Structures are given as C-alpha cells and as structure tokens.
Amino acid sequence: MSAASTGPAAPLAILFELSHRCPLQCPYCSNPLALERAAAELDTAAWMRVLEEASELGVLQVHFSGGEPTVRKDLEDLVAQAARLGLYSNLITSGVLIDRARLDRLAQAGLDHLQLSIQDSDAANADRIGGYKGGHARKMALAAWVHEAGMALTVNAPVHRQNLEHLEDIIELALSLGAGRLEVAHVQYYGWGLKNRAALLPTRAQLERATVIVEAARARLKGTMVFDYVVPDYYARRPKACMGGWARQFINVTPSGKVMPCHAAETIPDLSFDNVKDRPLGDIWRHSQAFARFRGTAWMPEPCQSCDQREVDWGGCRCQALAILGDAAATDPACAKSPHHEALIALAEAESQAPAPPFTYRRFAAAE
Ligand code: SF4
Ligand code: SF4
After folding, report:
1. pLDDT for 134-190, tens place per residue?
2. Which residues, in sequence order, are CB contacts of 243 under 8 Å at separation 6+?
3. Which ligand is nearest to the CA of 362?
4. pTM of this structure
5. What spacing in Å lies between the alpha carbon of 3 and ligand 2's midpoint?
C-alpha cells in the first residue's frame, strides 16, 4: 500500500538533542553553526511528554544526545521515563562530565547503552582536536566504569586527515576498552564539518589505507567487536541512504523542540519545522512540511527518478546537495550519475592535498 493512503510507517528511532551546550569544541561537530542557547531548551515536562508521544507513535529507540546531554540535570529522569515506556535508551556522550556516581545513577534509571566519542588514540592530539585539556583521560576512566557496570558500550571515532594515521591504534584502544561496537566514521561535511573541510578532508590514499585497515580488523575481530564504517561521500561512487532515507526511520528534536528529519536539515532554507510545543509528534511525523518535502521518490529529479537505486539510497543526502550545489532537490553530487560528481572529486583531491588550515573550533560565537 502506498504511504499516501496509509501514512508513513512508524519511525525506528528518535534523537533528542537535549542541549547544544558542550565543554568540547570539535571542529566537525554535527550541531548547527547557530547553536541554540540554554534559555531556549525544553523543560523536563516537555521532554517527558515527547517520550510518551514517541512511544505512542511506535518508536523503539531513543538516543539522548546534544551537545553534551549530561549537562542536563534531568537526564536520569528522562532515562527512567524511557525505561518505563519500554524504549531502548542510548546515551551519546563525550564522557567528560560523568563521574562514577552519575554513571551508576544512569544505570539504575535503566540506561541500556552508552556511546562514547573519542577524538584519537593519542591523548595530546585527542585533546587538541576536541579543544578540551584532559578530556581523553576522563573518557578512558568512564569506559572502564561502563565496562564494570556491564552496560553495552560503543566507541564512536570520527576520523579525518588529522587522526587517520592512528587508525590501527584507535581500533586497539576500542578493543581494550571492551567496546562491543566501534564506529569508524569519516567526518561528514555539513555545518561545522563543512566549515572545517579543508582541515579535515583526507586524501584518497589515506581513505584507501583506512578502508584496508578496517576490513582487516573486521575480519580479525569477528565475534568480538562489530564495526560500523562510514566513508566520506566525496570519494564515493554512490551516495549512502542518508538517515535511512528522508523521513523514513528517524526523528531529530533540537534543544528548543524543533522536529527535523535529520540534524542538518535546518541548513535547507525552504523547509519549515514544527515544534513539539505546538503540535503532537505523531502529527508532525505524518504531516509536517519538512518531513513530506523529500519523503519517498516523487520529489526526485532525473537521473534519480528513473534509476533502479532510488528506493535503495533514496537519492542520497539533501543537505549535501544543498551544501555543494546550492539546491537541496538536486541529485546528490556524491553519486557518479550526477553531472557534478567529477567536479566534487576534483575539489576533494585538490583540497585534501593542500596544507591544512587551523581549525575553527565549535563555539557559541565562532561561526558568527
Ligand atoms: S562533536 Fe564534540 S563539540 Fe560536538 S557535541 Fe560532540 S563532543 Fe561536543
Ligand atoms: S541517480 Fe539518484 S537514485 Fe540513482 S544511484 Fe544516484 S543518487 Fe541514487
């Protein structure tokens, strides 16, 4: 049956950006350049209600993210509410603000899984990239406590030209921390990542070496640690199904309650986002202009419209089409069928071989 007659299937997961506040300043942060201030954040009652609405809608997983979600003192209450509702909960954290007592409280509240980001295996370089002295050591302590608490741990390692030479050590580090899963995620170039692209984009040779290392480690560690490997679109021949397809599986809620199909959707100027303060979540999922705009295949231009991959990659990434081509409705230039693909490859090769400029760190005023 078509989505038009029955409405879209329920989303799998919802991501709460509880706050854009974060003590780190990663130059590839997925938050928007215009960060939302603490005064604009939803209160506890509003987040509690959104959890109920998500559960009614059929959502199965909730990801508590940010910024740094542990800046919110009510995080334990939200985790407990998710547990009451039977939602699988995941905390996506930089880890630097969690002491042992807080971790125990979160575990008691019912937290199922913790996803810890690391900036490098080398402590000094990790602290330089994150812009936070002593951060790496705090992360190592937290990972040990998570392991002791018997909680599932994923290590998330964004990789780029300033840490890729340490990839083998990063894999060993994740293994030694007891991670059941390692995400080796090449930085994606939207928002802060786009702003810092010239400092982060790897060369093609670096990417190819990284892929060989990950594939070898994946085979060697089968049954011990699962790998998620996200390659940079700039060297790909086919785009990825961004967010599993626009408005198909995920909902993203910003600190102030704006509901978006992905964390970068706000870069697209002709979308209007509803807010959980004004409209029920299920209604937004089914009818919001921002969700409907690129859902399914009807919006697609050629060559996507007549392509046999259109229900596999759902046309790739709208935010990338906008960032590179200035048109969110264009075929993703990461696709080799796009007339702009060769220009993207040429740009990537030139930029990645030029000397890296200094980082523009993610700060509340740095992009203004
Ligand atoms: S990417 Fe870095 S700066 Fe952005 S929220 Fe995560 S830890 Fe904080
Ligand atoms: S033409 Fe469009 S649908 Fe086909 S592979 Fe490329 S991005 Fe995907």
Report:
1. 999 999 999 999 999 999 999 999 999 999 999 999 999 999 999 999 999 999 988
2. 249, 250, 261, 262
3. 1
4. 0.94
5. 21
